[in-house]
Predict the structure of Glycosyl transferase family 2.
Amino acid sequence: MAVVIPAHNECVRLVEAVKSIVDFNQAKAKFYIVDDASSDGTKEAIESYLKENNIPHQVSRNEAGKGAGFCRNIAFANVTEEYVLFLDADDFLYPGMLDKAVERANESGAQVVLTEYERVHDANDKKLGMNPLDEGILSRLTSAFGQSAFAMKDAAYALEIANYPWNKLQRTDYCKEIGLRFSSTPVHNDVFAHWLILMNATRVAVLNASFCGHRVSLYSNQITNIADERRMAMLDVFAELDDYFVRHPELKEHFYHIYTSFKIRLFHWGMSKIDNAHQEMFKDGFCRTLESMTSRDFFDLSKKVPNIALDVLRYRMRQM
C-alpha cells in the first residue's frame, strides 16, 4: 500500500494525517511525501516521526514551490506497491477505513474504489457531510449496482463526482497503464487525473462508508480559496482534457457530454471564486475553449443533453 502526500507548511497536520493511517489500520503503508518548499520544518517533522516509528517512507523536498500536482507526479513515479492513495496533508482517514477500502478492492477486483467522505470545518471540527451532488451519485451507483463492480461507461454520470484526489483508492498497475499524471497547474491539478482514472476504468466499486475527513476553511490558504489570476489555470486543465478526448475518440463517445456539462459547471464555480479584475478575461478564455467543438460534437451533445448544447451555443456566441 502506497500513500502519496504533497505538503507545504503542514508540519503538524501532516503528521496527524499519517498517524490517522498508521494508528488505526492493519494495512502496512509506505509513505511517499514531497515537501513543496516549506518554511516551517515540515520535512524534518515528518521524517522524525516516520523514522522513530520505523514506518517505510520516501521523503523529498523541492527547494522552490512546484505545486501539488508536480509533487504527486514525482512521488507516484517511484510507487511500486499494489494500491495507491493520494492524500492531502490537511486531511485524514477515519479508523479502519483504509483496511475496508483494500478489502473492497480485493473482493470486487476493482481497479478503483470510490468512497464516501466527510467535509469537516477546520475551526471547530463540525462535520458538514458530503457535497450533495456526490451523495446523490454514490447513492445512485449503490442502487444500480449494489456490491458489484461496474464499468464506468455503464455509469457515465458518476464522472461528475467531485475531482478530489483522496475520495478513491486505485490499483497502482492500472494507474501506470493509463499513464496517470496530475496537472502542473497552481489550481485544479487533480481534475485531469480524476477523469483519466475514472474514464478508463472497467471495474469500479463503491465503499459505502465515510473514508476520509476533508478539512474545509473559508479563510485559509487552501487552493480552493485562491481568487487571483492563478484561477485562470482552470482553462489550461480544460485544454488538457479537450486534447485527450481528441486523441481518444472511443472515450469521447461515452463521456464527452458528461465532460461538457462538468466543464460548464466548474466554470460557473470558478466565476464565483475569481476576483473582479480577471472575470472578463476568464469568461472570454472559457468561451474560446468551446470553439474547438466540432459540428459532430455539437450534434451528439444536442441529442444527449440539449440544455447543455444550448448553453454551449450561447457561450460561443458570447450571449451568456
